[in-house]
Specification:
six-stranded mixed sheet; 21% strand; globular; 20 strands; alpha/beta; OB fold (Dihydrolipoamide Acetyltransferase, E2P)
Length: 447
């Protein structure tokens, strides 16, 4: 078992860490499916308002890859379909019935199935979208074969779930999911686990190449792990799956039904209760936070505070998100700004006296504490990015739309989430993650 030690990075000390206590959300009345959660697809509707659906009934498919279907997370009636500009599908609302019916997909022994048979069942069930590919972080193309598959069992993002704790509570389907994924590649299934783990289903996992990892965030990001284990070269593809989705894949083949539950972490100083919560996929924020009081004006984020998206009570939790963060809005401007001693300022440098404070969690708001300015290479990005690339030059090549330089500087290995900490540390207040996203989209479009 190989070990990877990450030295660069930073674990954000933010107040409101989730308590290791799993509660169950109440039964929702509605669920939503939001196609914009899936980047890079062109949805084509298969249902209309008033249609009855089961758990696992196809709702739409991707016009670019017609075999990739997206199925209903609940049984009931299509209560509404919201369209945006140019008839873009914004959301599909499902009114749940008292007795939900579920589609049956058959129980299968994975050892007797071929890769094509496994793909067919995943595509028909609507579970295929849990498998994503790098570069570009799109849903995996079922017509391709990856050189490897990665699973990160040590997420390090703020408020991220403790995978060892989750698997200690329920690991059903985990090994079966690993066995199935191993059939989808001629390469390796790389499982990256915490150092000195005592969770047996991780330490003794079969059909995988095991790696241990230690170090600060973003050590848990799959992109960082790919960079240190099996870097992506031009023309190569790597797939990746979350641990909870691995279990969902395993349960599909061992139980024959689509798993529509997952555990999310509720974190942030604006919440009255911070804990783990078992929810339904597509559950609305207002149902998830129904028994959780929000203090004052706060920002609700589906995902972690570094990479998540701003949401509202009427939206559903993101399809891939396992964190819900709620932090205070910061609208005030402090007198003297950066000229203050800064005892209460969170800083990654020695510019403020707060560096002398004990390493305790702090209440952070959404305040950026400054405006966008020219990029000045102080070395802040390099100090928190554990990749052998030159981030300053890469960002400048993206802004210049120089594809040759982007490729030479390793953009195919990059993903916006890997640069989120750079954006947090940036003294120039640049949206580094968004710039990387724009660069990847530009290369994919010009491709």
């Amino acid at each position: 078992m190989k070990h990877i030690r990450i030295k660069k990075g930073h674990d954000l000390r933010i107040a409101g860490r989730p308590e290791k206590l799993i509660q169950t959300a109440g039964t929702p009345r509605q669920l939503k499916v939001e196609p914009p959660n899936f980047s890079g697809i062109k949805p084509k509707l298969l249902v209309k308002e008033g249609d009855s659906v089961k758990i696992g009934t196809p709702l739409f498919y991707d016009k670019l890859h017609p075999r990739v279907k997206f199925t209903s997370p609940g049984g009931g009636v299509i209560a509404g379909i919201k369209f945006g500009e140019r008839r873009r599908i914004e959301e599909i609302v499902i009114e749940l019935s008292a007795n939900e019916a579920a589609a049956e997909f058959g129980v299968n022994d994975s050892s007797a199935l071929s890769a094509d048979e496994i793909k067919t069942q995943l595509l028909e069930s609507g579970l295929w979208p849990v498998i994503r590919q790098r570069p570009f972080s799109r849903i995996a193309d079922p017509e391709t074969e990856p050189k490897a598959i990665f699973i990160s069992a040590r997420p390090t993002a703020p408020f991220a779930p403790d995978i060892e704790f989750l698997l200690g509570e329920n690991s059903e389907g985990f090994q079966a999911g690993l066995d199935i994924l191993a059939k989808l590649t001629a390469g390796k299934v790389n499982l990256v686990i915490p150092e000195n783990t005592k969770t047996q289903c991780l330490a003794k996992a079969d059909n995988v190449e095991l790696y241990t990892i230690s170090g600060p965030h973003p050590a848990g990001n799959v992109g960082i792990q790919i960079h240190h284990i099996d870097p992506i070269r031009p023309g190569e593809i790597i797939w990746y799956v979350s641990v909870q989705d691995v279990m969902a894949i395993g349960r599909l083949f061992t139980k024959g039904q689509l798993s529509v539950e997952k555990v999310v972490c509720l974190g942030g100083s604006a919440l009255s209760k911070n804990h783990y919560l078992k929810i339904r996929r597509g559950m609305l924020m207002k149902d998830i936070l129904k028994n959780n009081e929000i203090a004052g004006e706060a920002r609700m984020i589906s995902g972690d505070v570094l990479t998540g998206r701003k949401t509202s009570l009427e939206n559903c939790v993101g399809f891939y998100d396992e964190i819900i963060s709620v932090i205070p809005e910061g609208r005030e401007r402090k007198l003297l700004g950066w000229m203050r001693p800064g005892w209460d300022v969170y800083s990654l440098t020695n510019a403020f006296f707060s560096r002398l404070r004990p390493k305790e969690d702090m209440v952070l708001t959404t305040n950026r504490n400054g405006g966008v300015r020219a990029i000045v290479p102080f070395g802040n990005w390099e100090s928190v990015l554990p990749m052998e690339i030159l981030p300053t030059y890469l960002i400048k090549s993206i802004l210049a739309r120089d594809i040759d330089d982007m490729e030479k500087l390793g953009i195919y290995e990059c993903d916006p989430e890997d640069f989120a900490l750079c954006a947090f540390a940036c003294t120039s207040k640049q949206e580094v993650s968004e710039i990387v996203r724009e660069g990847l989209e530009y290369i994919e479009t010009e491709g």
